[in-house]
């Protein structure tokens, strides 16, 4: 077998492949659909694929066929490779559908999460979290939802049926139910959980993703929906996205219920029908005929319902169902509130928006790419009866609630497409900047260097302490790479006089100062050039 390591990969036009320590091939990337491919001839055909959505590239010596849906890691072990002991080498790829987050990717992830947290806090929300492992029964519902079929579920060593969470709302509902008598409503909570679903992967859809959730509990009116829609729009605006890029479709399950009554669908079939209708955006009616037959629905009944759902004007529905029909007033009130929030150009009524979760009871909404190239960007709705259902129904009282989920994968794709991804270089505003490099030129001075670094860190200065033997040229190259403002050099001659050298990389000047004055001198320089990175973050 041939063992390849890709040593230069992304955001460049030239690819280098290395076999052990010898350079063996180079080539140019070319665009092929939503991937870029590189064909290299060695002793056999080797093809490399870059998955644009995951920003990774992989090589294969077995096939030149581009395959969709999969993703590979930058460090690839070809099939059949053998280790020195004759055994198969460890597969270095992350599990299919998952991602590694190297520092560059972490900077982007943190940038996005900080955008979301900032919006949530500006809207007065509190952050919460829950275990990634939950009891399987929390997600097992009988309405035929895809999520129930996509669980990463298993039996633990104690015989308990568990699942990685596929969504956050049931965990939130469990938490609220556990302490509902001690909670002060309304609740305004948010989280950024990692969620897992075993599903077919497409662009912007993985088997794990992070999702920004915001939920309001205890408010029965659409004022809660309006507040959440405004938060979504604010996050888009903070990222540079406009209403020309993205829109938000709104509808109401109560309107759908009225339509299903009008076409003769019995109430006990409403939830399952909504779930099937939600699938019709992805597949034709013919693909769902068997499911429709199981529900006892005639095709002409479904087609009649679909004809209603093509209406895009809420006034048409008011004329069809009556202006006081359930759900119609909710939509009219929500559109009026959108005007007050200044987001009316983002929001539009669309009766075809259903959302595929069984627990929705009222307004539902979905963020969409106006170019139609990406799947739903975010979505949510009202779920007033979820606690009632979790408590076993009967006479148990529920709590009105509404919320949304906003995944990380699709929004990153949208930002790429619109050229809005930030350049998050370390030391250049990437979120983990370093202010000062402290460098002891002799090993005997490392204790003094450590003491100096500690003093600076206690003053909220971000310090990179050189820990091993390095040449001055390497130190200054590293300082430049990190975007450092100041370098402190400890050398034997100056140390013998109780001094050290302060190099100001902003002005290019350097000065020999007393070691006891070094911290104040650095703080003064950082105050002149701008606050230290650590201080800015505190």
> Mean of the pLDDT scores?
80
User: Sheet with the most strands?
Assistant: 9 strands, mixed
Oligomer: single chain
Low-confidence stretches at least 5 residues in length (pLDDT < 50)? 1-81, 531-538
Count of DSSP-assigned helices:
17
Radius of gyration: 29 Å
Compute the separation of the termini in Å. Answer: 51 Å
How would you describe what is shown here?
The chain is an alpha+beta fold and 538 residues long. Helices cover 32% and strands 23% of the residues. It is built from 17 helices and 24 strands. Strands 8, 12, 13, 14, 15, 16, 17, 18 and 19 form a nine-stranded mixed sheet that branches. The radius of gyration is 29 Å and the shape is elongated. It starts with a strand and ends with a helix.
What brief labels describe this structure?
5-stranded mixed sheet, disordered C terminus, 17 helices, disordered N terminus, 538 residues, alpha+beta, 32% helix
Helices, strands, pairings?
Elements: E1 5-8, E2 14-19, E3 22-28, E4 30-32, E5 35-41, E6 45-51, E7 56-60, H1 103-122, E8 126-127, E9 133-135, H2 146-149, E10 153-155, E11 161-164, H3 169-178, E12 187-191, E13 194-196, E14 208-217, H4 223-238, E15 246-252, H5 253-262, H6 270-279, H7 289-295, H8 299-309, H9 314-321, H10 328-341, E16 347-349, E17 363-369, E18 378-382, H11 386-390, E19 401-407, H12 408-417, E20 436-440, H13 446-458, E21 463-465, H14 472-482, E22 486-490, H15 492-495, E23 499-504, E24 510-514, H16 518-529, H17 533-537
Parallel strand pairs: 8-12, 15-16, 20-21, 20-22
Antiparallel strand pairs: 1-2, 2-3, 4-5, 5-6, 6-7, 9-11, 10-11, 12-14, 13-14, 14-19, 15-17, 17-18, 18-19, 22-23, 23-24
């Amino acid at each position: 077998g041939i063992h390849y390591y890709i040593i230069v990969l992304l955001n460049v036009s030239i690819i280098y492949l290395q076999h052990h320590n010898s350079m063996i091939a180079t080539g140019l990337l070319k665009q092929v659909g939503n991937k870029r491919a590189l064909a290299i001839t060695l002793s056999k055909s080797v093809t490399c694929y870059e998955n644009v959505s995951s920003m990774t590239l992989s090589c294969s010596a077995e096939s030149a066929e581009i395959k969709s849906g999969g993703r590979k890691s930058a460090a690839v072990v070809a099939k059949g490779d053998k280790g020195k002991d004759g055994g198969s080498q460890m597969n270095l790829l992350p599990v299919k559908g998952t991602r590694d987050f190297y520092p560059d990717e972490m900077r982007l992830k943190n940038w996005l999460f900080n955008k979301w947290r900032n919006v949530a806090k500006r809207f007065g929300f509190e952050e919460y979290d829950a275990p990634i492992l939950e009891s399987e029964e929390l997600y097992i519902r009988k309405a035929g939802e895809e999520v129930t079929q996509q669980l990463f579920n298993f039996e633990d060593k104690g015989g308990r049926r568990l699942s990685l969470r596929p969504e956050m709302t049931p965990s939130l509902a469990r938490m609220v139910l556990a302490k509902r008598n001690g909670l002060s409503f309304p609740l305004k909570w948010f989280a950024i959980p990692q969620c897992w679903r075993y599903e077919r992967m497409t662009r912007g859809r993985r088997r794990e993703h992070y999702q920004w959730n915001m939920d309001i509990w205890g408010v029965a009116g659409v004022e809660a929906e309006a507040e959440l829609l405004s938060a979504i729009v604010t996050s888009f605006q903070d990222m540079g996205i406009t209403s020309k890029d993205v829109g938000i479709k709104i509808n109401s399950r109560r309107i759908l219920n009225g339509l299903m009554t009008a076409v003769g669908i019995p109430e006990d079939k409403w939830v399952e029908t909504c779930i099937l209708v939600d699938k019709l955006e992805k597949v034709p009616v013919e693909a769902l005929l068997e499911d429709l037959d199981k529900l006892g629905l005639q095709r002409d009944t479904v087609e009649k319902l679909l004809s209603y759902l093509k209406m895009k004007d809420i006034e048409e529905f008011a004329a069809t169902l009556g202006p006081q029909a359930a759900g119609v007033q909710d939509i009219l009130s929500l559109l009026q509130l959108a005007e007050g929030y200044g987001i009316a150009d983002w929001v539009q009524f669309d009766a075809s928006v259903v959302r595929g979760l069984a627990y929705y009871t009222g307004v539902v909404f979905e963020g969409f790419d106006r170019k139609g190239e990406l799947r739903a960007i975010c979505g949510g709705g009202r779920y007033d009866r979820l606690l009632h259902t979790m408590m076993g129904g009967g006479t148990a009282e529920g709590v009105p609630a509404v919320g949304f989920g906003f995944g990380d994968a699709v929004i990153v794709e949208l930002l790429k497409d619109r050229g809005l991804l930030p350049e998050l270089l370390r030391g250049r505003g990437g979120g983990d900047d370093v202010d000062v490099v402290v460098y002891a030129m002799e090993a005997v001075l490392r204790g003094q260097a450590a003491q100096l670094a500690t003093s600076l860190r206690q003053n909220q200065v971000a310090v990179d302490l050189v820990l091993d033997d390095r040449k001055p040229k390497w130190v200054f190259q590293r300082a430049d790479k990190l975007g450092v403002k100041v370098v402190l050099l400890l050398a034997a001659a100056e140390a013998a006089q109780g001094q050290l050298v302060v190099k100001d990389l902003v002005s290019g000047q350097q000065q020999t100062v007393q070691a006891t004055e070094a911290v104040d001198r650095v703080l003064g320089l950082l105050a002149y050039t701008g606050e230290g990175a650590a201080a800015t973050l505190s």
